[in-house]
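Researcher: Please translate sequence to structure tokens.
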Amino acid sequence: MTTPPPGLRLFHGGGAGLRPGALVLPPIVTGVEHTLTGTAQALGASHEHARDDRVYVTTGRDVARVYAAFKPDGSLYEVRAEGVLEADPDCTVPGVSFACTAAVVVRVVDPVVLFRDRSFDAWVRMLNRATETAGALAGGRQAG
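Model: Translation complete:
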């Protein structure tokens, strides 16, 4: 666990409608039932790898864009983590994905990210490329 280094930009892809200053809270707090965490748990992921008491954030803007696409009319946000960041044990690329207890929206990067803009395969390719790029950029500034 660590406190985010100064200047580290974090992103979150989630449901639409949040404004700067709004809190991004975990599903266990909001009661949102249809989440990627919930889907992962239904497919057998352990609670340690898919925590419904955490908000997931990433250093990769396009990584978050992909996750936003999997929400109905999802949005891409730049966020600030509240409290400490925990490395996401499900992400095999260090310095890219983290969990925290909450996040604050700094700005709305893209208010509507539509899944239908690309094929599923194209979204997965984008996620893989974006994760590798974010990992390469993380280099020495890993927060996890």
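Researcher: Any highlights?
Model: The longest strand covers residues 102-113.
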